[in-house]
Automatic annotation (TrEMBL):
Enzyme Commission designation: 6.3.5.-
Keywords on record: ATP-binding, Ligase, Nucleotide-binding, Protein biosynthesis, Transferase
Protein family per UniProt: Belongs to the GatC family.
Molecular-function GO terms, alphabetical: asparaginyl-tRNA synthase (glutamine-hydrolyzing) activity; ATP binding; glutaminyl-tRNA synthase (glutamine-hydrolyzing) activity; transferase activity
A Pfam family annotated for this UniProt entry: GatC
Role, per record: Allows the formation of correctly charged Asn-tRNA(Asn) or Gln-tRNA(Gln) through the transamidation of misacylated Asp-tRNA(Asn) or Glu-tRNA(Gln) in organisms which lack either or both of asparaginyl-tRNA or glutaminyl-tRNA synthetases. The reaction takes place in the presence of glutamine and ATP through an activated phospho-Asp-tRNA(Asn) or phospho-Glu-tRNA(Gln).
Keyword flag Transmembrane: no
Name of the protein: Aspartyl/glutamyl-tRNA(Asn/Gln) amidotransferase subunit C
GO terms for biological process, alphabetical: glutaminyl-tRNAGln biosynthesis via transamidation; regulation of translational fidelity; translation
InterPro entries, A to Z: Asp/Glu-ADT_sf_sub_c (IPR036113), GatC (IPR003837)
Record flagged with keyword Cytoplasm: no
Transmembrane feature ranges: none
């Protein structure tokens, strides 16, 4: 596999808005090259009888049943409201004319 060049590392760092030094670019080029070489070894594995998966162990979401319930009575809720008008919560405007 082709090694990453220092210029490629600098380009990717620039795209990610990362400031790196020349020494860091050289270090990362070597490290990222080792990572891509290792990942390339996986392409040598025979995976013809391996089913594609998104996760190696089965995952199940454990969620409670969504059941409609009675809300708070309006009178009780409105006791905590600073300003109200016609039974509704009054909030400051967010847009001016």
């Amino acid at each position: 596999m082709a090694k990453l060049t220092v210029d490629e590392v600098k380009h990717v760092a620039n795209l990610a808005r990362l400031a790196i030094t020349e020494a860091e670019a050289e270090k990362f080029a070597e490290q990222l090259g080792a990572i891509t070489d290792f990942a390339a070894q996986l392409n040598e594995l025979d995976t013809t009888n391996v089913e594609p998966t998104t996760h190696v162990i089965p995952l199940v979401n454990v969620l409670r049943e969504d059941v409609a319930a009675e809300g708070l009575p309006r009178d009780l809720m409105m006791k905590n409201v600073k300003e109200q008008q016609d039974g509704l919560v009054k909030v400051p405007p967010i847009m001016n004319d």
